[in-house]
Amino acid sequence: MKEFFGIGGYTRTPEGYMSPAHIIFVSSLMIVMIAAAVILGLAYRKKDFNQKIKVIAAAAIIMDSIELFKIVFVCWREHSFSHVLLVLPLFLCSIPLFTLPLSAFGKGRLREAALDFTFIFGLLIAFLGTYGAGQNYSAYPVLGFDNVVSGITHAIAGFAALYIAIAGLLSMKKENIGISFGILCSFCVAAYVADVLIPYNYMFLMRGDGTPYDIFYNLVNGSKVLYPLIVVFLFLLYISCFYAVFFLIKKHRAKEKQTA
Question: Under a CB-based contact definition with an 8 Å cutoff, are residues 52 and 168 in contact?
Fold first, then answer.
């Protein structure tokens, strides 16, 4: 257990990014994620909204509880409370920690937008945070506390996105797009303030750190103004494209029903 939790440092050599152990572990998480979302989504599809949202509430409580435990535990393991500044939930993958509770316990259009936001980013977060987490799987053993907790929380985000779609909790209303933008921009502002004050690189707003964002970082010569603006613009562009594709598919299906 001491080795699993990394107390005193991991003694095992990390299996490595895209190693068989990495692929098997994250693929197992994805299979469980998809199966759970399909089974529960179909089971609750014909139930009323209050019944459907209980699953999202459970996912929100589990996800936030695990993340809070991780933050407290890592600070204890590192013997430094100031270490909390390096594990704040201000990454892109951390947004469901806030949108899931809003989806479960919010009201009106804010709840609708939070559900849609979780749907839009959930699967992206799930796959990028598991198959794409090169830094984590290069630094820690696959079956270690850091990677297991990260894998579970990312899988919960993907589960929530799939469940929302299958259970019929989506609204995807045009009038809520602005709220989705507001959620993202508020999160980016918080991450940017933290990046400047700590300093750190939440949301990759300071530099690319080996990600594709390096292309834009180099393009503007590391400009502290233009680079973060480009990153935020790309996030907003992703949301816009997602809505656009969704509306096109919805329009196409409506035409097919009329001609059927």
Answer: yes
Query: Both tokens of residue 129?
Result: 């945070």
Measured CA distances, 74 to 86, 98, 148, 235, 249 (Å): 10, 21, 14, 29, 44
Say what the pTM is: 0.93
Q: Which amino acid is at 145?
A: F
Please, are residues 25 and 142 in contact by the beta-carbon 8 Å criterion?
yes
228-236, Cβ contacts within 8 angstroms, sequence gap of 24 or more: 228/188, 228/192, 231/188, 231/203, 231/204, 231/205, 232/184, 232/185, 232/188, 232/205, 235/92, 235/184, 235/188, 236/181, 236/184, 236/185
Residue corresponding to tokens 């590391």: 222
Angle between the N-to-C axes of helices 145-167 and 108-128, in degrees from 0 to 180, rounded to the nearest 10: 130
Digitized pLDDT (tens) for each residue of the chain, 260 residues in all: 999 999 999 999 999 999 999 999 999 999 999 999 999 999 999 999 999 999 999 999 999 999 999 999 999 999 999 999 999 999 989 999 999 999 999 999 999 999 999 999 999 999 999 998 888 899 999 999 999 999 999 999 999 999 999 999 999 999 999 999 999 999 999 999 999 999 999 999 999 887 788 999 999 999 999 999 999 999 999 999 999 999 999 888 888 888 76
Backbone angle region of 222, left / alpha / beta, with phi > 0 → left and psi within -120 to 50 → alpha: left
Residue 124: CB partners within 8 Å, gap ≥ 6?
238
